[in-house]
Amino acid sequence: xxxxxxxxxxxxxxxxxxxxxxxxxxxxxxxxxxxxxxxxxxxxxxxxxxxxxxxxxxxxxxxxxxxxxxxxxxxxxxxxxxxxxxxxxxxxxxxxxxxxxxxxxxxxxxxxxxxxxxxxxxxxxxxxxxxxxxxxxxxxxxxxxxxxxxxxxxxxxxxxxxxxxxxxxxxxxxxxxxxxxxxxxxxxxxxxxxxxxxxxxxxxxxxxxxxxxxxxxxxxxxxxxxxxxxxxxxxxxxxxxxxxxxxxxxxxxxxxxxxxxxxxxxxxxxxxxxxxxxxxxxxxxxxxxxxxxxxxxxxxxxxxxxxxxxxxxxxxxxxxxxxxxxxxxxxxxxxxxxxxxxxxxxxxxxxxxxxxxxxxxxxxxxxxxxxxxxxxxxxxxxxxxxxxxxxxxxxxxxxxxxxxxxxxxxxxxxxxxxxxxxxxxxxxxxxxxxxxxxxxxxxxxxxxxxxxxxxxxxxxxxxxxxxxxxxxxxxxxxxxxxxxxxxxxxxxxxxxxxxxxxxxxxxxxxxxxxxxxxxxxxxxxxxxxxxxxxxxxxxxxxxxxxxxxxxxxxxxxxxxxxxxxxxxxxxxxxxxxxxxxxxxxxxxxxxxxxxxxxxxxxxxxxxxxxxxxxxxxxxxxxxxxxxxxxxxxxxxxxxxxxxxxxxxxxxxxxxxxxxxxxxxxxxxxxxxxxxxxxxxxxxxxxxxxxxxxxxxxxxxxxxxxxxxxxxxxxxxxxxxxxxxxxxxxxxxxxxxxxxxxxxxxxxxxxxxxxxxxxxxxxxxxxxxxxxxxxxxxxxxxxxxxxxxxxxxxx
Amino acid sequence: xxxxxxxxxxxxxxxxxxxxxxxxxxxxxxxxxxxxxxxxxxxxxxxxxxxxxxxxxxxxxxxxxxxxxxxxxxxxxxxxxxxxxxxxxxxxxxxxxxxxxxxxxxxxxxxxxxxxxxxxxxxxxxxxxxxxxxxxxxxxxxxxxxxxxxxxxxxxxxxxxxxxxxxxxxxxxxxxxxxxxxxxxxxxxxxxxxxxxxxxxxxxxxxxxxxxxxxxxxxxxxxxxxxxxxxxxxxxxxxxxxxxxxxxxxxxxxxxxxxxxxxxxxxx
Lengths: 794, 268
Ligand SMILES: Cc1cc2nc3c(=O)[nH]c(=O)nc-3n(C[C@H](O)[C@H](O)[C@H](O)COP(=O)(O)OP(=O)(O)OC[C@H]3O[C@@H](n4cnc5c(N)ncnc54)[C@H](O)[C@@H]3O)c2cc1C
What we know:
The complex is a heterodimer. Chain A is α+β, with helices and mostly antiparallel strands. The longest helix of chain A has 28 residues, at 552-579. Chain A is globular, with a radius of gyration of 27 Å. In chain B, the strands form four sheets. Chain B has a five-stranded antiparallel sheet with strand order 4-5-10-6-7. In chain B, α9 packs antiparallel against α10 (242-267). Chain B is built from ten helices and 14 strands. In chain B, β13 (206-212) and β14 (219-222) form a beta hairpin. The model of chain B has no long low-confidence stretch (mean pLDDT 96). The chains are: A alpha+beta, B alpha+beta. The A-B interface holds A 125-127, 130-131, 134, 286, 288, 654-657, 695, 710, 712, 715, 717-718, 720-721, 777-779, 782-783, 786 and B 1-5, 37, 41-42, 184, 186-191, 193-194, 242-244, 246-247, 250-251. The structure holds flavin-adenine dinucleotide (FAD). Flavin-adenine dinucleotide (FAD) binds at residues 27-35, 52, 72, 99-100, 104, 107-109, 111-113, 115-116, 118, 121-123, 159, 164-165, 191 of chain B. The site of flavin-adenine dinucleotide has 30 residues of chain B, from β2, α5, α6, α7 and β10.
């Protein structure tokens, strides 16, 4: 059912072909981004503002003793004892058995990871604040640290939270019946896989300015966040303020990826201090703080078994997955979201008869885990796609053949999979066929066979589907502090005929200032140059859970469309009065109300309404030209975009270097509001996926010390590591969304670890070596080859 | 992080610089490309920084036929761009072009790189293979130290307090020389995890292999010992693991291969 017919045009009389839905218009926001005129927290200076520097724990686990403030400067240094009335950050899950953690804004009694804030220093400049921080002496009594999740779950391990009795935030069990299949299946494959702990690395780190506004008796917090409204709710709770006393402003945000989907201890401290001290304060995270204190995502451990029949048809998956959730349950996503997601999405886009999965969210002495672009999916896709390759080998099939036999076919869509995920639409096999064609499998196989010498060629494939924009029915089950529901947008006509769209989500690189304007242009025919998308301010925008989970184009896009359509009706009503015709006889065309030969522009309608009401008849409705539109998808189980990735790599078997020679993706994000922006999202995601596959890793030593605390040690992929990508699009509308669009923000990051790992293993298979740990580094490859050599020799 | 508070001096002569460097907690700065990060991490906490970039005495370049002399303040980028004399085949230019990123090369200097003595530094390894000499300056006169004796450990040199590197002298190899230089980096521009430079210079009776990125001073193998097969054994004492030693041996093999090809090329 692949089709280009989106369920749209007819319902939108103002259809603006040149800038509306489906057009690759250049991004409005790029002008300021590219000219360096964006305004980030670091660019903002308030009068009387002082800078903060934190004293951070050098230990992964220690009991806190006395904190000695420098003599004469006691009033510039604050510890937990000084934060009167401040409550810890608590993010509980409602899932049975979940154990609660309390994350204090400044450590209390114990520190539980390196980099945890112990005290905060206030000074006119950051350098002076750091001078002050260096003079604070803290007495620590070091405790045994847990730097590996498997150690943390062995009996007798030290306890991160003393009163828990163990180190498990939560365990879950999908208890499918697989015993019969295990006994009888002709093919059984097994893998133990590990993904690294990563540091999400947006170009702009975290940062916050806090200011107490006495006129409104209100805390104004300017912060680099993806979710201003959620920060407001959480922060008000911690500071003992009511929510109308807190205003959150997110100015330009230099990338998020999940790193800024969190309520921070630093935000709580800054909020407290601004009121307490009576002057604004600012904290800007530096790279050291980010790397040393905030390695916070992606670390999974899998024990996997898959069973298949002789033809490579998947019968069952039996999995045991642990996620290193770090020391604290972070707000709002909690410590359990990642592992809970693993359990529900591990089956991938495949059909199977049996599924069993046991998960653990393990507490360790590391920063709390935060969902990173492609939450859990990058690891999960790596897991299931590794198994599929193993089955292919056992069944004597090409990797793509075995996948074709197991993918949910188009004719079964919509499809409820084994974990009750409702795949909304799509033709997964077709995406795979297209990418297989693009990468030229026979050609690669021929080159592979002809290759000589130490450099080998490998081909890797991965396919996945990606739930996005899922709502209440999915999230309430996890019982975390934030459950997404409906989305609202305000559409307001200005007196000169411009349009303001106010949305509670945050745009920080996704291009939403453009794509939401395109939705406005689609409905009202107003050019996007005259459409201002206002976001990032709780005082100006409707409540929203913010930007995460590939939800914005679906949810905020739907809300904007709804608001604009309601606004269109009001414009038409007034325009009809001015044209002296019936509203039913008018249409909006290219920014004007039209009836036969007669037209009145939207600008004239607006001017008349706001400034010359005397020209309107007495019976005109007083409702006005500002509308809050509310939206929910027709079904809130989420959109499922999907993509097939295919990659060719070379592996230098002497030096362990992996080079990406070709990379092709076929993806389906439903109706693309702006295809160019989607390509950008896929490319950006791919870069991060390459990082997960080959570069990014924060190792910890046995004492819990992070070892890659500069960008010379923590390898991020750069321009020379990211391949030139070939993208093919399919367009299968989602039946549940406004225009048929699907969430597509994360997929680029999901496929690469699986595809690249499969390609490397394809190259190494003839040598009898397999890489089961990410990232795949030269050191790991050479080490495995040397171990193999020794094994063969002895 | 931000650096500690420090005084900043920009002397115009070596004599002035030396006087300033004699004060408590003073530190020289070349291009600041290694010192800068150390300041920002507060690994270096100098009371005073003495910037050497204004010293004409550290900037001269000279091609005296049997040797090139480059001022210590010569930035990598000047060498990369061919604005300084080079050895045949643009050897120095090619080395410079693969140090760090262009922005770092614009400011980072050859002298600073040697004084910093990062075990993974390109100049340390390559100039060592070329048999370069370090020319230093003090108010009491200078020294001429062979590079092999200049570095005493990771980030450690024989420089005395107040002693300034003024220039580097690179002897010109014979006409039939062969040169090989290979390094392995996770990403272009990052410090290498294996590197080897090989000079075959029959005219001067030199067959030299220098292994860098060992975590300590470069390991020099001369004559018959300059053999890739000897590398793994030679590095046993260097504190590298078996995988790193293996990689170093592979890179040494590739560097030797390059040098032999170049050598054959000059004779053909
Ligand atoms: C991101 C990045 C990547 C890099 N990658 C590489 C790489 O791949 N290969 C490589 O070789 N290098 C690399 N470097 C280092 C770079 O080459 C630096 O330029 C070099 O190490 C230091 O030179 P500098 O002139 O900047 O010295 P500075 O940083 O100014 O000084 C370094 C040290 O030398 C001392 N010093 C400087 N000049 C003198 C002098 N004339 N006399 C006495 N003491 C002196 C200083 O006191 C200081 O202790 C990299 C640097 C960065 C930032």
